[in-house]
UniProtKB/TrEMBL annotation:
Gene of this entry: Mogs
EC number(s) recorded for this UniProt protein: 3.2.1.106
Entry GO MF terms: Glc3Man9GlcNAc2 oligosaccharide glucosidase activity
Classification via Gene3D superfamilies: 1.50.10.10, Glycosyl hydrolase family 63, N-terminal domain
Membrane topology: Single-pass type II membrane protein
Top-rank taxon, per record: Eukaryota
Start and end residues of each Glycosyl hydrolase family 63 N-terminal domain: 7-121
Localisation per UniProt entry: Endoplasmic reticulum membrane
Residue span(s) of domain Glycosyl hydrolase family 63 C-terminal: 223-701
Protein's recorded name: Mannosyl-oligosaccharide glucosidase
Species this protein is from: Mionectes macconnelli (McConnell's flycatcher)
Amino acid sequence: GLMWLQHGGGLRHTCDSGDGPDRYGWLMHDGENFGVQEIRDGRLLLRTEFVKQPGGDHGGDWSWRVTARTEGKGPAPLLSLFFYVATDGQGELRPVLLNGTRLAAVEGTSEELGNFTLTFLPPTGEGDEGPKYASYNFLAVGMPGLHRLTELVQHSLRHISWFSPPGRPRRQYLGVSGTGELPWGPPRGQLLLHQVTLEAPLVLEAVLESGSAAGARQGRLAGRALSAVLARHAAAFERRFEDTFGLGARGATLPQRRFAQAALSELLGGLGFFHGRSLLHSERHSEPLPGPESTLFTAVPSRSCFPRGFLWDEGFHLLLLGRWAPALARDVLAHWLDLMNADGWIPREQILGDEARARVPPEFVLQHSKTANPPTLLLALERLLPDAPLPFLRRVFPRLRAWFSWLNRTQAGPEPLTFRWRGRDADAERFLNPKTLASGLDDYPRASHPSEQERHLDLRCWMALGARVLAALAERLGEPAEPYSDMALALSDNALLEQHHWAPELGAFADFGNHSTAVKLRWHRPAPVPGRAPPAPRLRREVQEAPRPRFVGALGYVSLFPLLLQLLDAESPRLPALLDAMRSEAQLWTPFGLRSLARDSPWYLQRNTEHDPPYWRGSVWVNVNFLALRALHGYARTAGPHRERAARLYRELHHNLVTNVFRQHEATGFLWEHYRDSDGTGQGCHPFAGWSALVVLAMAEDY
């Protein structure tokens, strides 16, 4: 990996949303062999490029180039780049030193890479400029774990070193000490670090050469040879992108195409391989237990905020990944299905190992075996199904069948063909409306008093989708499809859907449960304790009307699910009401996309606790807007009385969503987790190139 330090500033390593550079992200990335990334940190512009060269039995060679330049006027601070190699429990590293001070190369052996040599080439200037003067430091220490890597290097930056270019004044800088014991107990691996300190502009290259690829190698991939290969890969990426999405042919401008390439590349650049154990709470055990050792190859919602796997997010990621690289998408899907336990449960959040756990608030670490998540992997599989190889489908079918059976069994509702998310927040007095994290829509308003009598509309629609996909998969494999096709037919019965979920008083579909319409958060001051400071006031829930079984009057994304997953017939008499709600500015319509909760709702933009700002209570979310575009596109192409209206609404929503996401990216350099419904400003985590990258498929009108 890479760290950097502008002397006088702080050490940069991992991207954290609260302490990140001005802009950063992949501009091009093909998901496998090539990528170009730019990082803007104050006046410093870093460009990282890599390319792989297949060969041998261990993945072949790869080369990495880092270019740095300083923008603006005035003297630039000294820059240190830290290239490091670390092992985590296996493998061996051997330093190759030059003059006893410079780490020229690392020779190593590991199970995955076999024998390899990683060489750090001397720095040069940009273009055809020759060698660049630099000072060097190196570090060789035991590793306490990858989650403490930044801390370890910061601890080691205590050696006063001198940068002494010929004929120019000497300058002090902080260098890592060469060796030393660190106060963190027995090591779990090794760290070798190469610190290069110099002035920008500069170019540095690192080359990994695989021992098993020596016979196929035609010279080292560095310098001009590397430039030529990078240029060829960039041209190939441009061609493949246009062949796949056709944005140029659709009239997209060059800035729009560059934006779409960056959105796709940021998703692909976030693919990661994770290893470790989750912390699980099962109904079979009273205490939490570590799960089995697991591996997961997955995209992530956000490199800065959520650098780990999320089950319902991944289905949306795979819609885009499956269009770009179907084999890669199938690999990711298979990894997720391999996380299933014997009951058919897949934990919704994958926090595997110490490195992942270090980035997660403690209250979210534990995964509960009753808690589900929307089966969006089936949404992706539906797209992959026509071209997926039969051997792959045969391997995943038993797992998909087990997962769907688990959902059907454990999330069943109070009546046949109704469903209820388990795991709603139990401490109802803390929340304006207890959260339903299992649904993925966290604080979206549900019944005010969680009970076993709830009927959740979105889950019912997800189960209908799942039954439909499993029926198609079974038919493709020649397996009995009737159990799934019969269930899909029953769950798509519009009359039964209305019976369970149509709320006449709301004029829309809704959840049903034990619900009060008069619930507020009020400040309460706890009773004082003698001899102690007065306790701080707290926001607590007040129920001013007793709850009773009724429909939940929250008009928003959940209300649209029969439309979003296209369960409503094109001739349904309920379709106009949903189209009205979508287009009403007092309800869901904004110039930036559909807001998550109607503006005239009592929960609109309301906090859930004093520490919980509104999340799914008004913001515009790209993933649900993509489902809306997909559905409207489908209804616009299906004969029926609402066809023209669906087409008109589709065109307007498409323009609003794409225009705003592009405009915000141009202004900030980032895709965002969600967008403010009042002015379209990006909010939440950034960069959020998980489901927000679905804007690429929207631009291509590829549903």
